[in-house]
């Protein structure tokens, strides 16, 4: 049994009290065992057993007891009535959740399940605790006064069964008719496209005139002449000028159609590119975390271009070819149906061949695209890391990596070319064979006086064009497949829904006060639980210091507050509003963020400082730089504020970069200021200076400051100590010192290391 | 070997180290769960600090090794895919039906980037819930499986 699948359905059903849709084993086996006033409150369909193999089991909570049936217990239902001391503990690790039933003495039972059914499990635990408590205290069950989503703790409307925010996940694949989806981008140009199509029609028709004129030339001029009749210059002149005229017409129309369609396709390509890029920028950090730069660059750069070329050249050719074939066929049939039939004989063969080869080619081309991304990836990896590569003298290895990627690329291409190279010649062969048949049948018809020599010549003239087209049409197979593969990879981006979605009914806050509330937040990267049950309320204007060991989740908490990621459980509120119901950009414009790894863009220092507020005046920029103590070092640079910082700010030291990013955050005058190790790379004196400046700036702003050097946080109203993803202590410096807990230990450790600390910062200065 | 290991009534492992300090609720963790599962297991306490290091399980007394193996088996969840029965589509997200060493399962692959190569022939597939499936050696899959994978790699 596909364990996952069914459990997911179960979650979707959402076991609520007295739900009418009890799954089968429950209604069949369990309902008869229930006591009179006993009711099933919630259930969990387990998809693992305790040895972690996929199998089905059940845990059920009623108002009297907990029941369970697992493959280990066979057909019997185990049960535990409510009694004091009973506890149902819930943990998860690496994608597997564990429920443990314990009392004061021992573990009574444990169950495992995949996180696919986590929501049901959380609900079950909630119900268990409520009823256990009521059973022990004798008081009626405390119903939560407002319904909240068990996963994210967001309040639910009375009529909502499930949290609209948590159920947004979609698992439907995009349709395979990807190329047709390009229509979305072609639509704005439909008039031009129509004009182009009509021109194509006309110009194709014009190219079909000359062979038609060969017929009277043969039958009315040349053959009579051979039979002794004189040549009539009038007819010849007429026919020849007809030939010339049609050629000129075809030329003019051809030019117009190519021009119009090339313009349009170039625009479609550009639209596609910008739309994709815009969409990409709106995707969450999670998306970027999982992907490689080179791959994304290849998709947006070369693949949009390939689609554009496809639209402007190949699709156009193809349309012309199809028109040509249809028109030719019509003309041929109108002249002589039998000969026409024979002429068109190879067509089905070719169609069949195209069909066979197409599938192979498509997967092949998708593969080539992927391999190509691999090549770009190597570049995108190595070039930014060039200092590390050189420092460890690994140029040879990186070159080898690139060579390997290229070799892989070659291998995949070679494989494809084997099929591909066979294709064209085969079409040519069929073409030749077709011509042969037409000659033979035509001569036979002429000998039977069924057709004139002129008709045969016209047929041969048409058919050589016709087959030439078929040949080029067969080429469309590969380019179409290439374009389709490219389009698929672009739509992969376009179809991706941001994991921090824009709200459907956005709430606008207006003036933000800056009260931040983190309510029972849990967070996972993939299956790794990073934060658990974090509760934190920060008053407007308060300065909170976040401290804790490296890796304790400080930056992660900040990421959640900035909504770079959405919490896996629980929610973050600003001024009492769930941040997921605010427009993302509007919300973030209230936050000034200084990151642990400062990032500068290629451009001048002034541009970098004004990044969040491009219309800032020079005075504002300088004021921000002064506040961040960047002003003086900037003036020491040869071009002052106009100095270029190089890619990623390479030409500045670590501490200088940090100060610029502080200035950048200060310039937007945010209500909420977040400093993630904002001063970790500057020497102690500079830090003190920045600190002094910051002390003024944090006035009236909600500030969250993260620092390893605890002295940095002496101005903080409260300190929050995180340890392995949980808040372990909250209080002022003095309170926490008095408590002699986790903070005290951190502080002591640092006080002891104060000498090494100074050494450290000296090192950093030197290295930067 | 300088430690004792027992399991208490709550099902937790209790380690007593050479100096006689008891650590309750210790957990064994493999250092290279994929590339070298047998070579190097750390025992960490609830704080996440390493309290013992084991180079090789088979050097340990049998009952301790059994306890550790037991605990590892109930903690490690990385089903190894043995056969891919089918996928709902070659475009992601797609639902995969697979046979693993832990039974049959189906899961949703969210994007191609959730297929991660580890070395030449090993592959880790992360599903939409973060559960990781392992394909230890893609060359040992049957033809259908290889063809399906080929479309994603
Ligand atoms: N993108 C990510 N994917 C997976 N795990 C991550 C990611 N970012 C961070 N982590 C993990 O989350 C944990 C917490 O990281 P976080 O950056 O919040 O720590 P921190 O408290 O800011 O540490 P530091 O003081 O060193 O900056 C770490 O164990 C880290 O390995
Ligand atoms: Mg950090």
UniProtKB/TrEMBL annotation, chain A:
GO cellular component: plasma membrane
SUPFAM superfamilies for this protein: ABC transporter transmembrane region, P-loop containing nucleoside triphosphate hydrolases
PROSITE patterns referenced in this protein's UniProt entry, alphabetically: ABC_TM1F, ABC_TRANSPORTER_1, ABC_TRANSPORTER_2
Region (Disordered), start-end ranges: 1-25
Domain of life according to the entry: Bacteria
Alphabetically ordered keywords of this record: ATP-binding, Cell membrane, Membrane, Nucleotide-binding, Transmembrane, Transmembrane helix, Transport
Mode of membrane association: Multi-pass membrane protein
Biased composition (Polar residues): 1-21
Transmembrane segments: 193-215, 235-256, 307-332, 338-357, 422-445, 451-468
Localization per Swiss-Prot or TrEMBL: Cell membrane
Domain named ABC transmembrane type-1: residues: 194-482
Any one Gene Ontology molecular-function term assigned to this protein's record: ABC-type oligopeptide transporter activity
Pfam families: ABC_membrane, ABC_tran
Family annotation (InterPro entries): AAA+_ATPase, ABC1_TM_dom, ABC1_TM_sf, ABC_transporter-like_ATP-bd, ABC_transporter-like_CS, P-loop_NTPase, Type_1_exporter
Domain ABC transporter: 516-749
PANTHER family, sorted: ATP-BINDING CASSETTE SUB-FAMILY B MEMBER 10, MITOCHONDRIAL, ATP-DEPENDENT PERMEASE MDL1, MITOCHONDRIAL
Protein name: ATP-binding cassette, subfamily B, bacterial
Organism encoding this protein: Novimethylophilus kurashikiensis
TrEMBL record, chain B:
Domain DUF1854: 23-152
Name of the molecule in the record: (2Fe-2S)-binding protein
Lineage, uppermost ranks: Bacteria, Pseudomonadati, Pseudomonadota, Betaproteobacteria, Nitrosomonadales
Organism listed in the record: Novimethylophilus kurashikiensis
Alphabetical list of InterPro entries matching this protein: DUF1854
């Amino acid at each position: 049994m596909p364990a996952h699948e069914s459990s997911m359905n179960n979650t979707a059903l959402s076991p609520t009290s007295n739900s009418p849709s009890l799954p089968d084993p429950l209604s069949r086996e369990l309902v008869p065992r229930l006591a009179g006033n006993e009711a099933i409150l919630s259930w969990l369909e387990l998809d693992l057993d305790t040895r972690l193999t996929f199998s089905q089991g059940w845990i059920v909570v009623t108002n009297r007891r907990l029941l369970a049936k697992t493959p280990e217990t066979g057909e019997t239902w185990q049960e535990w009535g409510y009694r004091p001391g009973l506890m149902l503990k819930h943990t998860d690790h690496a994608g597997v959740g564990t429920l443990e039933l314990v009392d004061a003495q021992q573990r009574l039972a444990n169950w495992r399940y995949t996180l696919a059914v986590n929501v049901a499990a959380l609900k079950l635990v909630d119900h268990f605790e409520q009823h256990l408590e009521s059973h022990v205290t004798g008081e009626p069950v405390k119903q939560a006064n407002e319904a909240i989503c068990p996963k994210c703790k967001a309040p639910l409307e009375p009529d909502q069964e499930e949290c609209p925010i948590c159920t947004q996940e979609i698992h439907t694949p995009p349709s395979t008719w990807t190329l047709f989806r390009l229509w979305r981008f072609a639509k704005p140009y439909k008039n031009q496209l129509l004009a182009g199509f009509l021109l194509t029609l006309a110009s194709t028709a014009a190219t079909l005139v000359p062979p038609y004129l060969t017929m009277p030339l043969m039958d009315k001029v040349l053959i009579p002449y051979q039979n002794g009749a004189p040549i009539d210059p009038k007819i010849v002149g007429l026919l020849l000028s007809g030939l010339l005229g049609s050629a000129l017409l075809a030329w003019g129309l051809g030019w117009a159609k190519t021009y119009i369609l090339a313009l349009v396709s170039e625009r479609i390509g550009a639209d596609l590119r910008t739309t994709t890029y815009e969409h990409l920028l709106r995707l969450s950090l999670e998306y970027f975390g999982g992907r490689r730069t080179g791959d994304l660059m290849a998709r947006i750069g070369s693949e949009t271009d390939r689609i554009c070329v496809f639209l402007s050249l190949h699709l156009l050719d193809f349309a012309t070819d199809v028109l040509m074939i249809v028109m030719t066929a019509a003309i041929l049939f109108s002249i002589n149906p039998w000969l026409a039939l024979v002429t068109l004989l190879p067509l089905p063969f070719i169609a069949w061949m195209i069909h066979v080869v197409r599938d192979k080619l498509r997967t092949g081309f998708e593969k080539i695209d992927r391999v190509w991304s691999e090549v770009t990836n190597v570049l995108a990896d190595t070039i930014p890391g060039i200092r590390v590569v050189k420092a460890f003298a690994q140029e040879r290895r990186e070159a080898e990596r690139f060579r390997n990627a290229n070799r892989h690329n070659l291998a995949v291409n070679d494989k494809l070319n084997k099929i591909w190279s066979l294709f064209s010649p085969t079409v040519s062969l069929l073409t030749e064979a077709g011509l042969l048949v037409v000659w033979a049948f035509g001569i036979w018809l002429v000998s039977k006086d069924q057709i004139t020599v002129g008709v045969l010549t016209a047929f041969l003239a048409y058919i050589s064009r016709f087959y030439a087209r078929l040949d080029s049409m067969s080429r469309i197979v590969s380019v179409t497949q290439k374009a389709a593969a490219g389009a698929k990879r672009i739509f992969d981006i376009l179809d991706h829904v941001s994991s921090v979605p824009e709200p459907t009914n956005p709430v606008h806050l207006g003036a933000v006060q800056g009260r931040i509330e983190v309510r029972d937040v849990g967070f996972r990267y993939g299956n790794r639980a990073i934060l658990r049950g974090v509760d934190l309320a920060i008053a407007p204007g308060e300065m909170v210091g976040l401290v804790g060991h490296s890796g304790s989740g400080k930056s992660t908490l900040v990421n959640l507050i900035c909504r770079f990621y959405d919490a896996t459980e629980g929610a973050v509120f600003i001024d009492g509003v769930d941040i997921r119901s605010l427009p993302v950009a509007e919300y973030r414009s209230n936050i000034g963020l200084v990151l642990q790894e400062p990032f500068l863009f290629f451009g001048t220092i002034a541009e970098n400082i004004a990044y969040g507020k491009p219309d800032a005046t020079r005075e504002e920029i300088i004021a921000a730089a002064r506040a961040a103590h960047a002003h003086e070092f900037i003036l020491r640079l040869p071009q002052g504020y106009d100095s270029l910082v190089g890619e990623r700010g390479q030409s500045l030291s670590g501490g200088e970069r940090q100060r610029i990013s502080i200035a950048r955050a200060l310039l937007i005058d945010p209500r909420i200021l977040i400093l993630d190790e904002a001063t970790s790379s500057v020497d102690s004196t500079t830090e003190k200076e920045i600190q002094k400046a910051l002390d003024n700036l944090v006035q009236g702003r909600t500030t969250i400051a993260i620092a390893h050097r605890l002295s940095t946080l002496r101005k903080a109203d409260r300190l929050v100590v995180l340890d392995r993803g949980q808040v372990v202590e909250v209080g002022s410096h003095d309170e926490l010192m008095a408590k002699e807990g986790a903070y005290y230990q951190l502080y002591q450790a640092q006080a002891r290391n104060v000498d090494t600390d100074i050494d450290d910062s000296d090192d950093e200065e030197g290295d930067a | 070997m300088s430690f004792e290991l027992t399991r208490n009534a709550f099902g937790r492992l209790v380690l007593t180290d050479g100096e006689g300090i008891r650590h309750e609720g210790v957990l064994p963790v493999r250092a290279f769960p994929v590339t070298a599962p047998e070579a190097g297991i750390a025992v960490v306490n609830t704080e996440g600090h390493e309290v013992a290091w084991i180079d090789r399980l088979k050097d340990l007394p049998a009952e301790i090794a059994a306890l550790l193996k037991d605990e590892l088996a109930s903690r490690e969840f990385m089903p190894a895919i043995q056969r891919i029965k089918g996928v709902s589509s070659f475009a992601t997200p797609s639902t995969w039906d697979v046979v693993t060493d832990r039974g049959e399962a189906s899961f949703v692959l969210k994007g191609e980037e959730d297929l991660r190569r580890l070395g030449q022939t090993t592959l880790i597939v992360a599903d939409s819930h973060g559960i990781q499936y392992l394909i230890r050696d893609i060359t040992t899959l049957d033809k259908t499986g290889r063809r399906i994978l080929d479309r994603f790699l």
